[in-house]
Input
Amino acid sequence: MPMNRGYADQHCSLARSLEVVGERWTLLIVRDAFYGVRRFADFVSHLSIPRAVLSDRLGRLVAACVLTRAGTESRPEYELTDKGVALWPLIYSATMWGDEHYAPRGPRRLFRHAEDGGPIDKLGRCETCSELVPPDQIEISPGPGHSPKLDKDSVGIALREPHRLLEPLDLSPSRNTATTGQSRRAAKAPRRARAAP
Output
């Protein structure tokens, strides 16, 4: 017997929220939208999500006004609405919880206040200026738990470089080729420096 998608007998705000963002993949799609992913194919390749599932989740997020759909029919783009951006504390808190309990090598992504470069604490405050930092002022970069070997798609490759949340990622093939080459050279440079007497 298939499970019901809704919580008809639960009369609370958490149940209503789970009806929108509680299904598998949904929060990862929202997270990627914060990272700057816009196109269907880029969500598919970065998340390794079945196309039918992604189509369903995007449709539900658009219907719930969490995402807006723009672009053309053949090349739609998805962007967070104000209602979607309001989900940032949930995404950030869940990420911090996962980093604390399931990231033995450290966080995969680091979050900094773009205005002053200060690290952002678990509560979302800048450790330098003590401000609660909104997502459009957050810059992400690879952390100690990041493994470039796992970046096999254009989104993962683009996220090897610092990037401001909510800004579209530059996923052009020429940029990713250049970034991959730069990352390889940067990774080899320290080895050569250590080998020199």
In short: The beta strands are 67-71, 76-80, 109-113, 138-142, 163-164. Residues 125 and 132 are 4 Å apart (CA to CA). The chain is about 45% helix and 10% strand. The radius of gyration is 19 Å.
